[in-house]
User: Which sequence fits this backbone?
């Protein structure tokens, strides 16, 4: 039997290593999609797992300078957050994904709008707030 949750987690972590190293962009994109797929197949999948999968896929598309799929997945991430009333980390990073995707598309006004929305989200954990601040600083 396939352990979709484990595969989703392992592929997420492997994708992140490729994000940091940039040693194989094609594999990075494929792994991000595979991670999202396995999470969606996992019996314990929750809306936040689906949203985070879209966030990851959007992130890798920004790195390979493909704004259209980056915008699509960032938008899906936000739609899931809104539909399922996800807040905190998930909502802040949905806005971060949209800011990053808009930057990739060359839409600076929207970058600033989504950056402000991300900064306005209340995040309970101080370490999570720091991660968001560091990511927003890279815009």
Assistant:
């Amino acid at each position: 039997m396939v352990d979709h949750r484990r595969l989703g987690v392992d592929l997420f972590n492997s994708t992140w290593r490729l994000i940091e190293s940039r040693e194989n962009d094609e594999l990075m994109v494929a792994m991000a999609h595979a991670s999202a797929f396995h999470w969606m197949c996992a019996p314990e999948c929750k809306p936040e797992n689906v949203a985070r999968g879209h966030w990851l896929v959007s992130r890798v598309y920004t790195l390979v300078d493909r704004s259209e799929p980056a915008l699509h997945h960032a938008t899906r991430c936000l739609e899931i957050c809104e539909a399922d009333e996800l807040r905190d980390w998930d909502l802040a990073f949905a806005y971060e994904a949209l800011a990053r995707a808009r930057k990739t598309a060359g839409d600076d006004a929207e970058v600033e709008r989504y950056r402000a929305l991300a900064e306005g989200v209340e995040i309970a954990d101080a370490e999570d707030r720091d991660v968001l601040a560091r990511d927003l600083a890279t815009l």
Notes: The mean pLDDT is 98.
